[in-house]
Amino acid sequence: xxxxxxxxxLIESLRCLPGVGPKSAQRMAYHxxxxxxxxxxxxxxxxxxxxxxxxxxxxxxTLCEEACCSLCSNDRRDRGxxxxxxxxxxxxxxxxxxxxQGLYFVLMGHLSPLDGIGPEALGLEQLQSxxxxxxxxxxxxxxxxxxxxxxxxxFISEMxxxxxxxxxxxxxGVPMGGELEYIDGGTLSHAFAGRQEI
Length: 198
Prior knowledge:
Blueprint: H1 5-14, H2 22-35, H3 37-53, E1 55-56, E2 63-64, E3 78-85, H4 88-97, E4 102-106, H5 124-132, E5 138-141, H6 147-162, E6 166-169, H7 185-193, E7 196-197
Parallel strand pairs: 3-4, 3-5, 5-6
Antiparallel strand pairs: 1-2, 6-7
């Protein structure tokens, strides 16, 4: 721990980031203080703006600055296809690696009863309303291929079937236990193109 209370608070604050342990946080803090104070100020300004101005899209729940994200407000997207993903990072991964032209619904997680995450926490009532709206022809389930992701996909596929909507699951070119944002583009594109009815 640093002899400076403020440096100690900076190091502890940096540890909130995923994968950043005590040593990494210490290196980051000292780098900013010793070599890049201007970068540190920019980082602080952008972080403050992001925390204040970024919210969730009212349609798909992804992160955005507007009430409705650029994908949902794009009239050229196919409103008959709706792809369900766990995180906003998954939307970015699919947009960069596939030719998908439909819309998305972001769960912001997956079902996990042991952690107290049920259907209401994932916005499944909002998804149900979209499915009942009549515009969706195909629901593409692109949750992570983990036990929780598979359980979530199964639960949502039952919702789709109850509404008479075709539900497909992306193919398992993605390794079990993997997360979409870390999969290479070729594998992700192949898995997305090979999705199957469930």
